[in-house]
């Protein structure tokens, strides 16, 4: 366990071996049209260490004979694509996330104004937009078209879930003469992107595929924090504050809030730290018992006896052992459909206290899509602007199969193939999670503990 504060850098020390080699479509021979002093350009030998602590750096050096590092993102002095002939496309996939429009806008403005690219296509409704049978139009993106989109939540281009034939996607790229594809999405999008990149290589085409990591769950491996996460936490905090108000407004009031977070409880944990009103925070990464002296219900009863009110925050992926159906069901993208832990807890809590003859007032709030459909807050807006700019710099330099990541306090290039190898989750032995436990006062909710 490291004794450092990891907010807002949610990625613990990386101990895995990571291939950080970025593929280039070819040598860069065109002078970058950005009029920058030489020192502002980045070269591929400028790298950021993947290890942060001295011990870990030493250990890596001993094991691998070098310090693992990633390419620094930023404008290269020479570029691969001729801006006058370049055609770029942007697609957004998966669930909504605050800030998607800011990223789209930033990509369009950087392509157009910084590089002079005049053909930018917006692909409608995720991967569906590439498939002719869906009949979705392609949108021409210009600075005028995207001028105000950052004021809106959601995605200006629309999104979708569900696999689409990779060969048809690449056919569409060929038909449109696209040279650069920007894919804004999460782990699923990056799996699709990796396959698209492979099909492009198989056909011998020179098309760059650049990913921008998007998910409110903040669960993308090798990214310290994803855009939209802070906004989602802000919104979750509003629901938690309301739950607290309701809880203190009645004797034995219980405010119960469910927030998104399929496999990673970062939103629940961060909102708990931010609001200071939460007594029990339940996340997918930490198993909990409900019944028995060490379980949630007994702990809740003790809390009510002491303080007459309680607030519980539960991430949607927590406690799935209580709510999973016999036969697993999946969404169109192959993501497991979760059982509803919020409703289950609400009903079981009511039943438990009613059986004991204790009157309680349970107020259940599920802010659901509200936390992800709002426009981005300031911090995310600034972040999204950088992500869009760095994505364009990487693509114009002919780099492919990478995502732009904010990692160890720098923007870097990470191969998509590495990013999809793992999911980032809350480390329950980290200072971050222990701080959540300290701030709620909850003990590990296990009978054997
Ligand atoms: N292994 C895969 N091969 C090809 N396409 C995939 C694969 N996994 C996911 N996709 C496609 O990528 C798109 C986005 O995937 P998904 O719906 O899982 O969202 P995501 O990118 O993970 O974002 P979110 O954070 O919202 O989950 C979907 O159209 C999905 O069908
Ligand atoms: O209902 P939808 O739009 O498929 O997405 C819901 C999921 O998307 C996310 O927002 C991001 O993966 C999860 O937190 C949530 O479970
Ligand atoms: Mg996903």
From TrEMBL:
The entry's keywords: ATP-binding, Cytoplasm, Glycolysis, Kinase, Magnesium, Metal-binding, Nucleotide-binding, Transferase
- Enzyme class name: transferase
Which residues are tagged with the site Important for substrate specificity?
Answer: 188
Enzymatic reactions: beta-D-fructose 6-phosphate + ATP = beta-D-fructose 1,6-bisphosphate + ADP + H(+); beta-D-fructose 6-phosphate + diphosphate = beta-D-fructose 1,6-bisphosphate + phosphate + H(+)
The protein's Enzyme Commission number: 2.7.1.11
> Can you say where in the cell this protein is located?
Cytoplasm
Q: So where's the catalytic machinery, residue-wise?
A: 217
Domain named Phosphofructokinase is located at 87-394
Binding-site residues, ATP = 95, 161-162, 186-189
Gene3D superfamilies, sorted:
3.40.50.450
* Database matches in SUPFAM superfamilies: Phosphofructokinase
Which cofactor does this sequence's record say it needs? Mg(2+)
A cellular component annotation (GO) from this entry: cytoplasm
Q: Which GO terms describe its biological process?
A: fructose 6-phosphate metabolic process
| One example GO MF annotation | diphosphate-fructose-6-phosphate 1-phosphotransferase activity
Against InterPro entries, the record matches this protein to: ATP_PFK, PFKA, Phosphofructokinase_dom, PKF_sf, PyroP-dep_PFK_TP0108
Highest taxon of the lineage? Bacteria
**Pfam families listed in its UniProt record:** PFK (PF00365)
Write out the residues that bind Mg(2+): 187
Biological pathway: Carbohydrate degradation; glycolysis; D-glyceraldehyde 3-phosphate and glycerone phosphate from D-glucose: step 3/4
- Locate the residues binding substrate: 215-217, 260-262, 316, 369-372
Q: Which HAMAP family match?
A: Phosphofructokinase_II_X
Q: Which family does it belong to?
A: Belongs to the phosphofructokinase type A (PFKA) family. PPi-dependent PFK group II subfamily. Atypical ATP-dependent clade 'X' sub-subfamily.
* Role, per record: Catalyzes the phosphorylation of D-fructose 6-phosphate, the first committing step of glycolysis. Uses inorganic phosphate (PPi) as phosphoryl donor instead of ATP like common ATP-dependent phosphofructokinases (ATP-PFKs), which renders the reaction reversible, and can thus function both in glycolysis and gluconeogenesis. Consistently, PPi-PFK can replace the enzymes of both the forward (ATP-PFK) and reverse (fructose-bisphosphatase (FBPase)) reactions. Catalyzes the phosphorylation of D-fructose 6-phosphate to fructose 1,6-bisphosphate by ATP, the first committing step of glycolysis.
Cite the record's note on assembly. Homodimer.
By what name is this protein known? ATP-dependent 6-phosphofructokinase
Q: Which organism is it from?
A: Thermosulfurimonas dismutans
């Amino acid at each position: 366990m490291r004794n450092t504060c990891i907010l807002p850098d949610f990625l613990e020390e990386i101990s895995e071996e990571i291939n950080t080699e970025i593929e280039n479509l070819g040598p860069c021979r065109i002078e970058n049209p950005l009029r920058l002093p030489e020192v502002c350009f980045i070269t591929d030998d400028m790298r950021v260490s993947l290890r942060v602590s001295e011990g870990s750096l030493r250990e890596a050096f001993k094991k691998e004979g070098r310090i693992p590092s990633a390419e620094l993102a930023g404008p290269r002095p020479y570029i691969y694509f001729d801006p006058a002939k370049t055609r770029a496309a942007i697609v957004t996939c998966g669930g909504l996330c605050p800030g998607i429009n800011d990223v789209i806008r930033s990509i369009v403005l950087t392509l157009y104004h910084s590089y002079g690219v005049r053909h930018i296509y917006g692909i409608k409704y995720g991967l569906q937009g590439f498939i002719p049978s869906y009949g979705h139009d392609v949108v021409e993106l210009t600075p005028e078209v995207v001028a105000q989109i950052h004021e809106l939540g959601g995605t200006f281009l629309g999104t979708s879930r569900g696999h689409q034939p990779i060969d048809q996607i690449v056919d569409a790229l060929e038909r449109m003469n696209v040279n650069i594809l920007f894919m804004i999405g999460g782990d699923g999008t990056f799996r699709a992107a990796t396959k698209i990149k492979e099909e492009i290589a198989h056909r011998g085409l020179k098309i760059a595929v650049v990913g921008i990591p998007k998910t409110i769950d903040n669960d993308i491996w090798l990214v310290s924090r994803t855009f939209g996460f802070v906004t989602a936490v802000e919104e979750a905090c509003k629901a938690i504050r309301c739950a607290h108000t309701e809880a203190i407004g009645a004797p034995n009031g219980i405010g119960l809030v469910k927030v998104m977070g399929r496999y990673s409880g970062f939103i629940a944990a961060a909102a708990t730290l931010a609001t200071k009103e939460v007594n029990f925070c339940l996340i997918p990464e930490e198993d909990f018992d409900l019944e028995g002296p060490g379980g949630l219900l007994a702990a809740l009863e003790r809390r009510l006896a002491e303080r007459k009110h309680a607030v519980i925050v539960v991430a949607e992926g927590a406690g799935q052992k209580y709510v999973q159906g016999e036969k697993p069901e999946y969404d169109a993208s192959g993501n497991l459909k979760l059982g509803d832990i919020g409703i289950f807890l609400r009903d079981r809590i009511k039943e438990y206290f009613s059986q004991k003859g204790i009157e309680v007032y349970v107020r259940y709030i599920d802010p659901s899509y509200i936390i992800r459909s709002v426009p981005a807050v300031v911090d995310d807006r600034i972040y999204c602007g950088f992500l869009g700019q760095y994505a364009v710099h990487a693509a114009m330099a002919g780099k492919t199969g990478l995502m732009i990541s904010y990692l160890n306090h720098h923007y870097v290039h990470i191969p998509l193939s590495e990013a999809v190898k793992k999911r980032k989750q809350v480390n329950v032995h980290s200072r971050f999670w222990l701080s959540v436990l300290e701030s709620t006062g909850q003990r590990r909710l296990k009978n054997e503990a």
